[in-house]
Amino acid sequence: MFHRIWDIIEEKHLLKRYGYLTLSLFLAAICYNLLIYPAKIVSGGANGLSIVVETAFGIPPATFILAFSTIILIISFLVLGVEKSSGSVISTFIYPIFVELTSGITTIVDINSNDMILISLFVGIISGWTSGIIYKMGFSNGGISLINQILFEKLHFPLSKSTVLINMIIVALGGIYYGIETILYAMIVLFVSGIIIDRVLLGISNNKMFYIITTKEDEVQKYILNEIGHGVTKFNVVKGYLNNKSQALMTVIPTKEYFKVSEGIKQIDKNAFIVVTDSYQMSNGA
After folding, report:
1. CA separation for the pair 92, 69 (Å, rounded)
2. Which residues does 223 contact at the CB level (< 8 Å), separation at least 6?
3. Among 169, 151, 170, which residue's Cα sits nearest to residue 159?
């Protein structure tokens, strides 16, 4: 019985993952045909490359994306194996189909492409959100991402550097065909989409983690415990420059109380050393 219940849960989870993947690919295709393609925003990836290829050789975008992604997928299966490549199979074949099916959307929805900065921001947001959902569900966009993985596995070329390098080459090609302004809009898209992907994968933190080194640790501790109402953890540290021992305080507080805590500590000790980071998950804490 328990095995059956678990199987049902797994099936629902799998359906949810594939549902989100399909929706993300469909929205990405709409974004391509409604904003990216008409505005000729060459911001890297197979999308950007397809725009350049159509201009240079007259190959329809959906046809190029399908052929390009399929070739990369086959190479990936040969080089990386089935396990590391299988997450890109659906994106490789479904996305070009959606691009073709939504290619006439501009006859239904007419977007004024005069404000390129606003369009670039929207493209960055939508591209980042759809890519983030795809990654979060355990899948991949295929295409360029597989090339990056191959370079990492076989040549030990860092993923971050290969991603930037390949995208910059594609962006530069766009600049050659459509002008220098295209590069600037592409940079906006890449910057915004990168931020959105991180936010989708990690979420927007509800808490901040404070690391505090102060000569008035007892007063700071009492302030956090009594005034803010949150717990404090003490641990020993060694200062690297003077090599002397000290104690650090660590506390996690809601983001909305960040300013109150920060200013309160400065009032107690204006020379306190404070490091603040995002905290995405907290359990069993005060």
Report:
1. 6
2. 264, 265, 268
3. 151
DSSP SS3 for 84: helix
39-56 pLDDT per residue, tens: 899 988 899 999 999 999
Alpha carbons 89 and 68: distance in angstroms, whole number: 13
What are the φ and ψ backbone dihedral angles of 235, each rounded to 5 degrees?
A: -150, 155
pLDDT of residue 2: 40
Higher pLDDT residue, 113 or 172?
A: 172
Domains of the chain: 2-202 (no CATH), 207-279 (3.30.70.120)
Angle between helices 45-57 and 159-178 (to 10 degrees): 30
Distance CA(281)–CA(205), nearest Å, equals 8
Q: What gap in Å lies between CA 162 and CA 149, rounded to an integer?
A: 9
